[in-house]
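ok so i was messing around last nite and threw this chain in just to see what happens. nothing serious, just curious
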Amino acid sequence: MSAADDIGVQGATSYLSVNTPMVGGPGSAKDIDTQTATALIQATAQAQHANIARMVPDLQNPATRRNLYLEVGDGSAASATWLAKGYPDFARSMTTTVLPWEKIASMDVRGRYVLFGANTADVEHALTVGLEAMGLDVTSTTASPGEVFQWFLATSGLGASFLILALIVVVSSGAGVILNARSYAIQRLQGSSFAEVLSRDLLALGRFALPLYVGVALLTAIGLFVYNSLHQLAQFGMVALLVAATLALTALLTHTAVLVLAGRVPLIAAVKGLIPSKSIFVSIYTVRIAASLLAVGILSATLALGGQVLGQQASKAVWASNSDLNQLQFASYLSMEEFAQQSATFAHVAKQADADGQAVLAFMRPFAEMRPYDPNSKVAPAPGPPVVFVNSSYLERETILDAQGQRIQPSNTVRLLVPETLQGELTEITAVIAGAIGADRPFTETVMIANNQAINAFGSNSGILADTEVPGAVLVTIPSGGGWITEPDYYAYAMSGAMLFTDPARIISGADTAGAPAFVTGFHPAALDASIVFQKDASALRNHLFSTIAAIAVLMVTSLGVAIIYTRKNAQRIFTSFIHGWRSWRVNKVLLTVEAVAGIGLVLYGLSIPARHAGALAKKIADGGAPVPVDIPALMEWAPAIAAGIALVSITFTLLALRGYKTSLIRSHSADA
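result:
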């Protein structure tokens, strides 16, 4: 539900993006008849009895706040009440403020719109025809609740948790039937049919589960009332019902399947407590294998997230000391001509702020990305030390020491700073970086710096870095406000978060005055983005930790199941081996063989993960794609070790369970004797 709030709007049936065509169309906002376009949108809402909202991110906190400017054409719709009662935010990660349409009526019409109502197709058609007649481009998208839920499961770590929970349901449902096999046999002996036995079980489960479900529902409702005053309760109930129904269906199918298997055992043998060992044995190992495969992926993701979260936690102090740095937001619905003119104007303003020490550049690029591209190459570029581009303002904030322990001071020259440990690679590093930045922007000095320094970068191609530390980095220092950064680069650096500003209000007013009004639409603290990333990763880590523990629990429970079934099936042989003093492996060699095969298979699966990654890369290159300069993630290389560890844990659980049940069996038989 929180994911739906983050990426969409409650009750929305469609989203429209109104933009300037790439070719043709209005050249700037001045060429668009805003009054006519706004009147068209309002008239469409009234004529079609639909509600239409313009969605605008908050200027100072777009990641967690947004505004909806609503035109009401259907006063009976739930969305119409938002103007008076406010938007029913489900989670606290996104706050939505609903305002009347009139407050945005004079604003540039280009942007994103939200449509509500059952007749969305008619509304879309009317708006598309009308706005395209004005020279605008209109595109429509939808996001169904199922798509949002699928996206959330994939990105939050709860997808793995759901699969593990389904396996737990399978194990518990199957175990319930197996442990009551003699009871079912007695019912068969009394003449009960399969349908009667199953219906009796379902009635008993219903009497037990119904009060439990009601209690859970009441506790959940109380929790939601405290959390968000029961906002979007119906939608939450639908999602919860979908999850519960899926798990209930899984339990029903498992219960029925195992009951069918139990019914195939001859009646006399079943009354003695015998079960269909082979079928149950295969079923349990199917669950064990599935849990093991999931555990490999979950544990790998958990370790990766754990490393990220630890790095982000350590970087909190860095962001706290740089809390005055802000990332700018830019208009996204501009024509090519409009963008070219306004970005050039912005570059002049940003360059002056850079020269005045109000812009900080701290941009990290992977070394492999900077290697020259060879279209005939069939291998990906080799990795190397990360490269961090910084300006003079950065050097005034961050302490970088040279090889003699002296602090690197800002200068008017472009310098290459290389850790002493990379002395042997200096020639290659110099050649690659010089080739990447171009002969027209050479660095004039190379300085060796001390090893093992905490070098921090604030941005990268992927945006703000929550984990700022870049170990073993090479630095390129650039004079602030000089000619090294080109005009297009100022916009690119500012948009990506590579260049941050201490006085964003000056940038906005300067750009507006210089002829780029509304090009810079707002700003927000860069530390806020880092904090949001940390919170999301920490939440995902908790989900993965839960999934890891649950997966291990499934392996433990199935180990107990394997031990019980194997011991029951081979009880006589096990007791005989005890009397004759035979070694355990002679009696348990079948089970040990199965466990060994399963363990080896899991290790081979772990070995295949980096191999499949390399194979996919090789195929892409062979198909004519450019060599992708991406390193294999470190944890991917550890996948075989992770798989081997899980296999060892699984086998250990089984051996311990087997030993325990074997001891219990021997004591029981000895007492009877």
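not much to say yet. Residues 492 and 498 are 8 Å apart (CA to CA).
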